[in-house]
Amino acid sequence: MMGNEREIGLPSARLLSTDQAAAYCGMSPNHFKKHANVSPINFGNRILYDRKSLDEWIDQFKDSTPAPELRGLGSDRANSAH
């Protein structure tokens, strides 16, 4: 629903600035710049991100396993409690 996006402050434009794209992905602009594997669109001196590309990038993580450093976290806690 488009109304909900405006209520929670998400931008409604398809092309987003770096700050908007970072907010859309739920991360800081610095973290986004370092870790987001999404190609920007260059319009002159403006760097913009396509919301559809951001959605595709995020969708890649839906079925992925946790990072190796996080994978054993739960089992370590369970083992230390015994």
How do the strands and helices of this protein lay out in sequence?
Blueprint: H1 2-7, E1 15-16, H2 18-25, H3 29-35, E2 41-43, E3 46-50, H4 51-59, H5 68-71, H6 73-81
Antiparallel strand pairs: 1-3, 2-3
Helix pairs in contact: 2-3
Organism: Maritalea myrionectae
Protein name: Helix-turn-helix domain-containing protein
Concise overview:
The protein has about 80 residues and is of the alpha+beta class. The protein has six helices and three strands.
Q: Roughly what is the average pLDDT, rounded to an integer?
A: 80
Q: Give the total of beta strands.
A: 3
- Please describe the biggest sheet, giving its number of strands, its sense, and whether it closes into a barrel: 3 strands, antiparallel
Apparent shape: globular
Residue stretches low in confidence (pLDDT < 50, at least 5 long) are 75-80
Tally of structural domains: 1
Q: Say what oligomer this is.
A: single chain
Question: Could you give the order of the helices and strands?
Answer: HEHHEEHHH
Number of helices: 6
Structural class: alpha+beta
Q: Describe the strand arrangement of the main beta sheet, using strand numbers.
A: 1-3-2
First and last CA, distance:
48 Å
Strand content: 5-15%
Q: Give the helix proportion (percent range).
A: 40-55%
Question: What is the CA-based Rg, rounded?
Answer: 17 Å
Protein name: Helix-turn-helix domain-containing protein
Organism: Maritalea myrionectae
